[in-house]
Amino acid sequence: MSHWFHRNALKCTTSQTYSLSLVSAHPQAIQLCDRLKTARLQALDLMTDPSSDGEVVDKQLRHYLSLLLGFVFNHGFDPNYGPTDSSKLRHYIKFKWTDSLLGAVPCVRQDSVFELISMCYEYAIWLTKHCSQLAAKPDIDMEAAKECHKCLRKAAGVLTAIQNEWCERLLERSFVAGSDLDPRVISAYIQQCQAEAQEVTIARAIELKHNPTLVSALANETSKLFLAAAGAVKALDPTKVGKWMTYFQMKSAFYESYAFCYLGESLLEQEKCGEAIRALDESERFYEIAVKLCKEYRKQKAQGGSGAKIDEHLFFRKLQPLVKRTKDKCIRENGFIFHQPVPKDCPVLELKATHGLVTPEEFSMPTLHELWTPQSYSAFDLSKNVTYVDPRQKDKKGGKGAAAGDKPEEPIPMVDEKPIKYSETDPKNQSGCQIQ
């Protein structure tokens, strides 16, 4: 669906040379340093292009993570510590990463877990952009639709792993409001991915003319996910998250309108014309809210990324005439046959869909790279590298991740992202869902 999704900017980072001092010139330790640098560069480069092959990106990311894991866990290399205890190398290197919503000033952490989280986060954001690229085709076929659905589920799974497992492993757990480590931001991303994956399911259900009760329930569930995402970031700085939040509110209103529209169709099939008319009145009300939010969304600025053009898409433009046709039919049949009063209270939407609900796809770490051995691990010389600064000694006034006496971090140039090539051609189908 061209211009159907809001996408935040990729995170930015500085280069890492991994030119580390060694006690001995162990060949595997030397190879590890070289491969870490190369694997990181290649993974980041692939993720600047939303059209990169998904399998290639996944393989390259996992290759880098398999190398990085030696900096995260001990893996039994030091017999004095357990396999899941921290590696002696964990605080060896400083990593700098920006946040997807907060602009170009980076967060600095001397923690390899922070690097692991940031790379995985970047991958999750790339997956959503890859989905947008796939959906931007004039006519998206079933295979592309499945890939979109899969990308969004994978992204939700990566972010869920970050939220539930890896953030808890950070030694320094403080975060700046609105940063990518803020639990509210992570939750919003997860709910966005789940909701957008369900959009694909709804589009398919409409094209296949599934039972209107099912479509209504799915649309209602999707609306609630978008609304929850908006609620997650509501308390954050509106200059940073305002456009993103409006997108969530807009999508929530749009799918609530769809939910009441298909509820009206379902009630009409049950010959409950009075209730159907009331449901369609509610659909019209939410549609007007969505139109208003579309206008508000266009006026707002965001920190990079790509905006949506929801009201220009055929799927959006088809909703109002669909509601009108269904409502006119209900009024006509009610006037000729049923003569039912239109109730004051709106019929209740189906609270839980029985099919099509999206759950995140589980994300797991790769196995440790074979170059990591007790010998290569012991070859790294801790005494000759950057001294670890205990975060508890950091000056809170020094900015994000700044140690006492440090100067504020210089901004990092934004990632030169390759643009998503959108089609301005309307889908060649009746619903405008673009899923064939």
Automatic annotation (TrEMBL):
Residues 390-436 are annotated as: Disordered. Gene3D superfamilies: alix/aip1 like domains (1.25.40.280). InterPro entries: BRO1_dom, BRO1_sf, BROX. Signal peptide: none annotated. Residues 9-436 form the BRO1 domain. Residues 406-427 have a biased composition (Basic and acidic residues). Pfam families: BRO1. Belongs to the BROX family. This is BRO1 domain-containing protein. It comes from Oppiella nova.
